[in-house]
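[job 0412] stage=fold_complex status=start
inputs:
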Amino acid sequence: MAETTFGNATQVLEPFRGIKKVTLEEYFTSGHRTCQGCESALVMKLMVKAAGPRTIVLGSTGCMYVANTTYYTTPWVVPWMHTQLGSSGSAALGTAAGLKALMRKGKMKAEPINVIAFCGDGGGADMGLGAISATLTHKEYNSLILLYDNESYANTDIQLSGMTPYGAHTTFSPPGKVHRLIHKRWKKNVAGLMAAGHPECRYVATVCASYAVEMMNKVRRALTIGGPTFIHSLDPCPKGWDYDPMLSHELGELAIETGIFPLYEVEDGVVKYYGKTKAIVEGRPRKPVRDYLLKQGRFAHFTEEDLAYFQEKVDQQWEQWEIPGVVPFRKLDAAQAALNVK
Amino acid sequence: MSALICEVVYRGIFQKNLAARIVRGIVLSARKSERWGIAFGRYGDSPQRNGIPAKDFAIVADTKEELEQNMARYEPKHVDVTICVDDTLSKGVESWAWYGLQPINRLTVPNGTVLMTSLQPFDALLKDIHKKDAPYKLSLIRAKASFSGLWVYKEDHTEVRILGALAKIAPSFLTLDAVAEAIKEMEWGSELKVASARKAFDRMETREVKITEGNPEVPYAFQMPKWWEMREGVTIPAIPIGKPKEGGQGYVPERNPYFKKFSTRTMRPVIDFDTCVKCNLCWIACPDSVFDVMPDGTFDANMEACCGCGVCEAVCPVEDCITMVNESAFDDNASQWEAWRKDKAGYKTWLGAKIGDKKTTVRSHGFRFRGQYDEEIKHDLDSGGVEITAGIPGENADRKTV
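[job 0412] stage=fold_complex status=done
writing structure:
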């Protein structure tokens, strides 16, 4: 790239070919105050390990801001800045635009710098949805938005978010004697929403840190392809999901194997499943959701009826959706179409 | 005119509900003896994290005026009774960055009491508890640390046993009958629990601790930055990139110099470097970047950073290569790899001793499957009627994963 006409060049980050090839350097290190077994802290570590040293990270309010940067200290090796709860999208766009302007004016060496903004499910899927959506329409700026989804407002002691699964126990939805389930809304499909609704966004992926190398390679792909990109990570949370922290890794795997959280990437409009999800799409049986749900204290109040409902909703997303696990549209079947004509 | 000030030192989230029940129980028991009280958490501990030490307080006074006088303080600076519901906290407490290590008996007044749940003998605990410049009493309730999570509570009677013991320590504020009456009124109370409280009253063991006794180590501390030293925009320097271990081989990351995780763990991994297959799984799966890469391709768990979650043991494919062991079994934070390099045979013996007695050393860290707590408690109730005295040793010892 010429120095005066800085375009949209990105760093070309080749995928890691196996765990032995992963870079040794840590760009997010120890000394943060996250819970024992915090999967989101692992996501931070892997995210910047994949991105490398020429990276700026922006973090909206949430566990990964409050717990990590405790009282004027930090575990970050790369530059990191806090941004407000709903503004990970704006911060990503503004930083990317600012870098571009400084480089264009010659105030900064022209080079591709990764801009990653992370947000929790509260900050991203609830409050920050509009800002993220806007950022994903600006194709001239390279930025990655990573949603780390622990399915509640975990930092403030587990309030219900739009990403909390059906029936889960949270501070806002305690199971009672009269009403066993307080939270009866199904979780949002954020990755599908981003992929389907943002034609200028060339890359959307879902990841889980239990599959570390694949997770890092999705981050590398997003940063390499450029423009605004989006990654949704499901992070088991020992505090809010109420389980022995030792099981963080295993619960991540179970979320995939039960088909509750599908792993896929959408690159230039093409859906590609990967990992265990690919096997499920190709016909491998899914594990029953109860294997996943009953290992978590937040679902300990579930009855057989609740488990059956949960299973049915997950079955639907695989058996009835036009693009299984990704987009919840259905084509009219022939009989239904005939009825409509009448 | 007098007041009783208690603190409950506990593991964040794991014992949050337990601590809340204890401090509420103290206040309600005192109310039964016509006294006034208040229970509250330490503001700075919120938001709590799994395993990170936290504190709750209970203040009981003869009159309302005296209670108000005590409430005018941000939080108590001196306490009559320090209640500690996990004996690994006897090594000290560090709850946030800059705190440094705070001895468990730091706030206890001269001739006050440290009340602890533990299966360890007094002498073993006094190897960990720091020396104090005044004599105090160490009281023990024989029980294993009671850990559960935010939503599902483990009804193992720990809260009422603490209350029963407290009635013995401070009878002028809480009589045993008042405690029994309060327990019965609680939504979690029962006759069985009243019986447990009375048993704890009888069975609590107490020992005087002299100023010469205790861990002589000087707790580490950090120099806090002054406000005028802060930089524009309140920016702070990033952590430097790490270095190879030695001879250009391996990798050791730099770490946050102002927050150590020594007191966050209740277990630590011990590693068999001889059977390690160098698969890198522990290294990649550790949320705390604990594993330093050694020149030979094995991994040394750095105790400064480890919070003891046990994910490394869960992902390790080799039997007994990484084993989580009760933190009480260790006296220092020295490198295991260096010890192994120096004396391989000696290390093997040491390792065998640490992991050999898994049944008595393993600790439960909470919910693994529905019905688990009932199973564990039933076992105890079956063997001894209402008596719940020794916790549940060996629980889940055979369950590496569910």
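[job 0412] summary: Residues 318 and 324 of chain A are 5 Å apart (CA to CA).
[job 0412] exit 0
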